[in-house]
Fold GTP-binding protein OBGC chloroplastic.
Amino acid sequence: MRCFDRAKIFAKAGDGGNGVVAMRREKFVPLGGPSGGDGGRGGNVYMEVDGSMNSLLPFRNSVHFRAGRGDHGRGQSQNGAKGEDVVIKVAPGTVVREAGKEEVPRIAENGAEGPEMWLELELKLVADIGIVGAPNAGKSTLLSVISAAQPTIANYPFTTLLPNLGVVSFDYDSTMVVADLPGLLEGAHRGFGLGHEFLRHTERCSALIHVVDGSSQQPEFEFDAVRLELELFSPEIAEKPYVVAFNKMDLPDAYENWPSFKESLEARGIEVFCMSAVKREGTHEVSSAAYQLLRENKVAEDKLTAEMVRKQQTASINEFEITHDSTTNTWHVVGSGLQRFVQMTNWRYVDSGRRFQHVLEACGVNKSLIKLGVKEGDTVIVGDMEMIWHDAADTSGFSNFRKGSTETTKWPQWK
Ligand SMILES: Nc1nc2c(ncn2[C@@H]2O[C@H](COP(=O)(O)OP(=O)(O)OP(=O)(O)O)[C@@H](O)[C@H]2O)c(=O)[nH]1
Ligand SMILES: [Mg+2]
């Protein structure tokens, strides 16, 4: 049962093919020169999100993913064929990590030896709202009332073993996805009960609905115990906005407990609602309040997205291609991000020239040029910026910037 939302797989990029040493031998061609073909590039391993998948179950049977190896090069300048790529399809909301590490892995790299690693996949539900609460509080009942979902409802704890999802629609285009989670027990953060396994799913939710069984002996105590579990499991989850829904108001015990529960929580600054999920009374108010929290959160998130887009644009500077014109010994560095950056940089100032230099270095342009065999005196063109390469021993690499062909600037020192 644990397999459905976690999996461990092995991915290996294809090895590159070997190059071959060969000399051209032909009648009437006295000095044929080398004619060995390069080895083919190894295949890459890609991950692709497939909207039709909703679990990681397929990875129970297939664990190993290897991209094809590149063919070896052959004589007569025949290069080896590229190895076949492998695409691993995962469900939306899958988080990929290198086993035992936190960062997102990079497995699509070239090399004679294809990189390989174990990857941990973790599926986190993509729900807007998570319903949390003690076992038997009425979480599934609430979901069944506010959405078309039909989760199992029964009068015993841990009826819900896997999270249920439901779509709650208000009018027209305002909808939200609500996840009903297994009940939380005291000690859940230490692995008691089932709640712990699934609390992770709430990490992606924008807000929570906390259902309290109003007919229990001490509803406030139950409320605090669940809050404590949330905090102990993850402070991040505990910080999410939430609404409290005091349930089972149709039962005399709950009806009696309600005034003191309400008073006590409101004194702590917590907004509470009462409802009878079974009788469908007060449930609309609860889901509307949750939707309100969601909307407030969206505004904040949009700001964050704008910030991320800006950061991504900076990252796109990193992608470039270098071509070499051997007749003029000119290197063209092309990349839309780089180009834009060049246009932005006011090359006239030493300071910005230096900044530009730093960007080229940070983006790996200098290193790539050295790898490709740039020589002293060669011209390098990035956008409309022309530079002369000088001794690579100097970390800066370039000796002067020229914009167009008219102006030349000497850079006295770059350190
Ligand atoms: N009287 C009354 N019973 C309710 C109400 N809401 C839920 N119940 C009952 O409480 C029991 C548990 O309901 P569920 O919705 O399965 O509770 P849950 O929180 O999902 O429970 P777990 O999945 O086991 O954690 C069922 O017998 C429901 O019929 C209510 O408003 N009034
Ligand atoms: Mg349930």
Notes: Residues 217 and 253 are 8 Å apart (CA to CA). The pocket of magnesium ion (ligand 2) is lined by residues 139-140, 159-160, 180 (CB under 6 Å).
